[in-house]
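Dear support,

I submitted the protein below through the web form. The confirmation email said the job was done, but the results page showed an empty box. After a refresh the structure appeared. I'm attaching both so you can tell me whether what I see now is the final result or a partial one.
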Amino acid sequence: MARTSPTHWVGVAFLFIASILLLITTISAPVIGDIAILKVTLTNSSDLRHSSVTFGTFGHCVLDVAPKQTDQDYCYPKVIGYQPASIMAQIDGTHFGRASSDSADSLTDAMILHPIACGVAFIAFLLSLGAGVVGSLLGALVAALAWILTLVVMAIDFSLFGIIKDHVNSDGSGSHAFYSVGMWTCLAAMILLFLGMFIVLFTCFSARKAKKNTAYKSNVDTYDNGYTSTTTRRKRFGLF
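What the results page shows now:
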């Protein structure tokens, strides 16, 4: 069947990988402190200490903090919506204008879209995996929804953490902010969701077309066999 062609399974695999990538972004700091959407290396670096702040979906962590005799990481409680501008102002003395601070802080509420997009992407994978043409079509439609959610939250991530990144890197403190793993897994998931959605939808219509062609050919063969049989009987009757 066309639905089980290698091309279809490539699309299904893309949807599964996209859901895993979105899961990585979802479990970024403070769930797993070393996974960040934005990471800020602080100015107190030394041979023994490389302190940094990691920002993720539900909050932030401060890694490799004093005292230097131990390797301590401190992750704050998980919340929906937090204040990255205020956090950097307190930790590093970064100055933010009122508009920039309010914009960055308010955008963190929308980061709840990360786990939602992850769940929707996984549902799209399941629909594409275990059903026929109708299921594949539903899988493609759900994948389209997951792609839209991922595109929206990725744009929010770049806007939100772009504000923090620009202010930290330009305030002259010596700290350095950069996009980390969580941002790039979200970007990769967005690309794979689009490709997976397109491939599953394409193979769905291909399977439907193949089914129609098979039915048409079967009808033609039945008609031809019946017509030939009738013609033969008529000739025999005439000769007789």
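Response: this is the final, complete result; the empty box was a page-load delay. The helical segments are 6-26, 84-92, 98-107, 113-129, 133-170, 181-239.
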